[in-house]
Amino acid sequence: MPNPMKTLLPLAAGLVLGTWFAKRPVPPQARTLCPPAGQAGIRRQMEQLKREYEKQDRMRRDFTANVSHELKTPLTSISGYAEIIREGMVKSEDVGRFAGKIYEEAQRLITLVEDILNLSHLDEGAPGQERRQGIDLYALCERAVASLAEAARQRGIAISLTGSRQRVDGAEKLLAEIIFNLCDNAIKYNQENGHVAVSVTREGDRVVLTVQDTGIGIPPGETDRVFERFYRVDKSHSKEIGGTGLGLSIVKHAAAYHDAKIQLDSQLGRGTRVRVLFPLSQREAQP
What does the record list as coiled-coil region(s) (predicted)? Predict the structure, then answer.
């Protein structure tokens, strides 16, 4: 009897290496393993696997290119400022300002690397060693709003928090990342004299985090793309807005880790509302 592995392994290897084609004839040995009626089904499954592999490969190449660009930009700035100082081309009274620029770019690099590591851990389904526990989501929102209050004030944005104390089961650091990134985006992409409203409520067996802004909004047809890595709604102002372009991708993966659903509604020029629906804490769900 023919060995199924010896027949199927070359096909799988060809699929991974990109040398397998949909119209490639089924080897004679495989016909003894699968009747003609089932061979079409095998072909369809392998075609689907090949398309998925190609999609993942494109995403990997795009991610690598984007990471390279995002790393190179601050590194080029750091190198340029340091070279000017080294060559003595800066007045003594301006050294502090140049050093400040180097520090800012270094912090940007650190944030980018941390975001990439966070995404890597989330992709692997192992976001650190933090134990899941009952977390007061409202308390985390209070911390996020307090930490972003000055950034909001500098941009002329009012930020408020309403709702009630609700608990969810999860990793505190990841939950804090979700809240911070949503609020940070709502501030950065807001309009002059705008407002960011954060709320925590309970709807049935769900705890709902809502972040609503009066910002620039998202063009129709692009709402699904905002959770892609390095995607930016306003690319022309990405440098002055700041950030790594990974915040909402982290939100998406962190929400999935907590079995939470994300709802996004946006109107161009009028603002965006993001709702994250978490399962109620098991302790709270008990009658």
Answer: 39-66
